[in-house]
Structure formats: C-alpha cells, structure tokens
C-alpha cells in the first residue's frame, strides 16, 4: 500500500507540472524526513553521484554536437548523402534518414540530430513538393536515432544507474539502430512511390558526388574515430567524447565555419542541457535512495514475480507502462524513474540487462514522438515553424514502426546481442 501511495504522489506532482527534478528530489526528501533519517546523507550521496568519470561523457558529447550544429556540418552530410541517393524514389527522404543516422553516430542526442538535419532537410524537401506532415514526422522520428545509435546519452545514464558496461550497451544499440534506420528508409521509399506528389531529382554527376563527399569526409571520419576508439578499447566513452569535441573544433575551424563567439554559444547551450540532465539525475538519486529504504523496488519486484512468472507477460506489462507514462514524461525522466524500480526484477525473470536496456531505449524513443510531451515533436515544430498537429500526424506511422521494432526485438534478441557476442564483450 505504501508503494502505491508514494508512486501515486509522484504521479500527482508530475500531473501538476512540477519540474521532474524537483518532484523526484522533493518527494525523496519528504520520504526521508518521514522515516526520521538525518538529511546529512543526502548531499554526500549527491556528490558521490556526480563524482563519476563516466558522466563526463555527457557534457563532452553535448559540447561536440553543439559545435557541429553551429559549424553547419549537417548541411555537408545531407548534401553528400543526397548526391548519392537523391535520384531514388523518395530520395530526399532516404537522404534525410541516412543523414540522421550518421549525425547520431556523432552527437548522442536526439534533439541535436533533429535540429541539425531538420534545418537543412525541411526547405529542400518542401521545395521538391514532399507532403509537409510526412517531412516533419520523418525528421522527428529520424532524430530519435540519436539516443539509440552509439554514442547515446540515455545508454550512458542507463549504464551508470545499473552498473552495466557502457561499451557493451553501445555495441548492442548498433543492430536495432541500423534496423530502425533501414525501416524508416523503406517506408519513405514506399510512401513516395504510392503517394507521389514530389518532384524527382536528377542523378548527380560523379564530379558533384566527389565534391560533396570530400566536404563531408571529415565528419564521417570523426564518427568513425569515436565509434572505433570505443569498439577497439582504445578509449572509454568519456575519453572518446573529449577527443571528439577537440576534433569537432579542429574540423569546424579548419572549414572556417567556427568563431569564438559560436564556441561560447555552443558551450552555453551545452551547459544548460548538462545542468538540466544532472539536476534530474540528482533528483532521481534522492528519490531512488528513499524508495530503497522504503523497500519499494523490492516490494514491486516481489509483486511482479509473484503475479507474473512469465517473462513475456512481464515485458508486455513493462511496455504498456512505458508507453503510458511516455505521454507525460520525457525520455531521461522515464529512464531514471522506472529503471531503479524494474531492474531488480530482471534477474528473477532471467532477462539479460543489456538487452533490456536496448528494449527500454527503443520504447522511450517512441515516447519522443508521441503527444503531448514528445520532445522531438516540439523541436521539429520550432525548426519547421509548423503546426504541432501536422508534426504528430506525420510522426504516427514512424511511431508504429518503432513499436514493431520493439516487438521484433523481443522475439529476435540477437538483433541487439549479436554484435556484443561477436566481439566478445
């Protein structure tokens, strides 16, 4: 009964639009006070939470993505991919998804991916007569690849919360991320063939392709350096993020697209986002500490294992809960609230925690493009100066594809686990 009262109180605070960090932290402190526990332990735990080498990856990846955003790197990526596939049916849609995939392998952020590629792709596709809701929905969905294809900030947070290997999580995200990107591409081609209404592009000349590819090559090499250094064990995610930030500065300054004023703007935006993420993490840490003392994770784990002994039903229940709370919470909040509660049940269900992390992220990806608080919907609405209902209408087919991918992931676990198993991590 105590567990339901506490979780009900948290839901009430969120419905009342109390900021997630303060809802979690404030409720956690109240619970500790009701237990009569000294609050001196709270700042000690908070300091211990942020005193983490792994967390350095978050501001570094955000800095790198903001530098690339202001350096106009998305324009080069889009132009290069467009030169190769723009003449296909729905070629600009294919180029958009491929550009989102490549930029995801650099930024680790869905918002940065959607904003960067969206600013370039929306005018191009509108000029070619593509359906506006389709454009907006595709970009909102393409941006979600930024939290699945490594490096991924949510996977870093999941690894820290559960103490699982971040490198293994990164490798496990590659298969589902590429599968989702491929599914989006197939849908875009089929939509273009059946829906029509767009102006096909002429095939680019080899000279145009070579010129565009050379301009995008440094960015592609940057992505390869980040993923390769993590994959080979040369660098940790935090170290590769730091190196990536330095290389991003070098690339954009060498292209004469960066100034120190833009660097200050990038640092300011990265700082704002980092503080927001860290404050939510701190609030979640206090709440997690409190509910552990109240034995809530253990109670819920016992309740689940007592009434749900089949892993299939357990995952179905988890999926339903995540989809429901995804209507009200953004991805990081869902992760920090639900993972500490659900994670103790995994061992009893014999569920691989690495696989569960990928499954979880696919579902919170879906929450990024579902109303009313799907963050990517608002990002694309702002970038495209569009009506929110147009973005939502265009994003719904992609949300369905993502749900189908989550189902496939359950029946075909090797979609995520094959690569880590193949490289022995």
Can you give a write-up of this model?
With 425 residues, the chain is an all-alpha fold. The chain has one domain. Helix content is 79%, strand content 0%. It contains 21 helices and no strands. It has helices spanning 2-15, 20-34, 41-50, 57-70, 73-85, 91-107, 110-127, 132-143, 153-162, 166-195, 206-231, 237-254, 260-293, 296-307, 311-325, 331-342, 344-349, 353-367, 375-384, 388-411, 414-422. Helix 2 (20-34) runs parallel beside helix 13, helix 3 (41-50) packs across helix 13 (260-293) and helix 16 runs antiparallel to helix 18. The two termini are 41 Å apart. The model has no long low-confidence stretch (mean pLDDT 86).
Question: What portion of the residues fall into strands of 2 or more residues?
Answer: under 5%
Number of strands: 0
Give the fraction of residues assigned to helices: over 70%
- Shape type: globular
H/E element order = HHHHHHHHHHHHHHHHHHHHH
Low-confidence stretches: none
| Continuous helix count | 21
**Major sheet size, sense and barrel closure:** none
What is the averaged pLDDT score?
A: 86
Q: Distance between the terminal alpha carbons, to the nearest Å?
A: 41 Å
Structural class: mainly alpha
Rg over alpha carbons: 22 Å
- What is the count of structural domains? 1
